[in-house]
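Morning!

As promised:
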Amino acid sequence: MNNGEPWWISLIKAAIIVNLVMLAFAYTTWLERKLLGRLQLRYGPNRAGPFGLLQPIADLIKLIRKESFFPVAARDSVYIVAPVIALFTALAAFAVIPFGAGWQIWHYHVNGEIANVSIGLILIFALGSVGVYGAIVGGWASESKFSLLGSMRTCAQLVSYEVSLALSVLGVVLMGQSLNLVDIVNKQGATIWFFIPQLAGLLVFFFAVIAETSRPPFDLPEADTELVAGYHTEYGGMRWGLFQTAEYINMITLSALAVTLFFAGWHGPWAPLGPLWFLLKVFVLVSILIWVRASVPRLRYDQLMSFGWKVLLPIATLNAVITALLVVWVD
Amino acid sequence: MPQPIDSVKGFAVTFRQLFKKPITQQYPEFKRPMYPRFRGRHRLHRHQDGLEKCVGCSLCAAACPADCIRVVAAENTPDNRVSAGERYARIYEINMSRCIFCGYCELACPFDAITLGNEFEISEYSRDDLIYTKDMLLAEPIKRVPVADPDLYDTPIPYYETNS
C-alpha cells in the first residue's frame, strides 16, 4: 500500500506538507487581496514589505496578539473546539492528494503523497462533511442569532452542494476505475486528461467547490451585509483566524482535488516538472476562484437552492449515467 | 435564470481591469489638495498690529452645537492690552475630540476672529492632546495640507475622468 516506504518518511512528509499548506494559505490570502484589488482598480496590500508580501505575517501577529474574547452565553468547550475541528479536517484532507510521481532518495523510495489510501476520494469527502460540523457547532455554541442563522445556512448549503460535488466526480471515478487518487492521476497521464471527456463534470464540480468553500457568489453562509459574518460572528482573534484558515485551506484542497481529478495532477503537457506543474495548476484554479469573486454578485437564497438541486444535480446525474453507459459500452 | 452570455461578458469586464493602472491615491505620500472652503482645524486670528481679534464674547461657544468651545474672558487694561476690544479671551479652548467641524463658530463670530482652516490631519494618541489652547490656535498649524486651485476642480469634465 505504501510502496515499501518506511513510516517515518510519511511522518516527515506530513510535517513538511502541513507547513507548506499553511504557507500556501498565508499567500493565498495575499494573492486574493492583491488580485481582488487589481480587478477592482485598487492596489491591494502594499505597505508591509515589498508588494505587501509581509502582510500575511503582519496579520498573523495582529490576530495572535488580540484578546481571546468570547461571549458569556457561549458554551465554552464546544465554542473552543469548533474552529479546531474546521482546521483539522481542512488540513487532513491534503494527506491523500498526490503531488508528484515519487522519488528515489538515497536508498529509500519516497511517494508523491503522504498516504496512498485506496478510497482517497471518499476520504476527502468524508473529511469535508466532518468539517461542516466546525461551522455548525461554532455557530450554535456562540448563542447569537446571527451565528445561528449563519450556521443554519452553512448547513443547508453545504449539505445540498455536497451531493452535486460527489456526483460530479462519479464520471471521473468511472473513467479512472478507481477511488485511489494516485491511480486516477496515473490513468490520466497514460490516456487523456479527464477534463476533456468530463467537461460537464468539471463545471458542476467547479460550481459545487465555490459553494462548498462558501465563496462569492455562493457566500450566503457569511453574507456580510445580512448576517455580519455568519457562523463566526462571535469569534475573534486567532479563533476567528482558524476558521478563516480552514476556509482558505478548503479552497486550496478542493482546487488541488480538481487538479488531481480533471487536470492530471503532476503531469504536464510537456517537460516533466512534477510538483511544479501541480502547483501551477492549483495556482491557476485559485486565481479563477478569486476572479469569480470579483465578477459575480451574491445569489438570493432560493436561487442558490434551486441552482443546486434543479440545475447542478440533474446535470451531474446525467453525466454520471452517460459516462457509465459509455464506459461499459467501450469495454 | 441568469443569461449565460451576459455573465461571461461580466468576467471579461473584470479581467480587463487587471491591465489598467489602479486609480487609488496613495494617501500619506500623495495628498489630494483640499477645497479652499473645506472645514478643518480652527485658527484664531490677530489684527495687523498684533492685537487679537477675539474679544471674548463667547458667541462661538453659544453657537457650538457640540459644546466644545470654552471661553473665559478678562478685561483689557492699559498695561495689558491683548485684544482690540474692551475684553479679551483669557482662556480659549477647543476640544477637538468633540468638534463636528460645522463652522457655526465661524458664522457666529462678530469679528472674524475664528475661522476653520484646511488642516485635517489632527489625530493624536491621547485625548488630552486634542484640547487646543489659545496659543495653539493662534500659532500656525504644524502640519499643512495643499490647498486646491479652484480652477482645477471647477471644470466641465470631472477630475476623476481625466486623471485615472
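Residues 7-330 of chain A form one domain.

Hope this helps with the figure draft.
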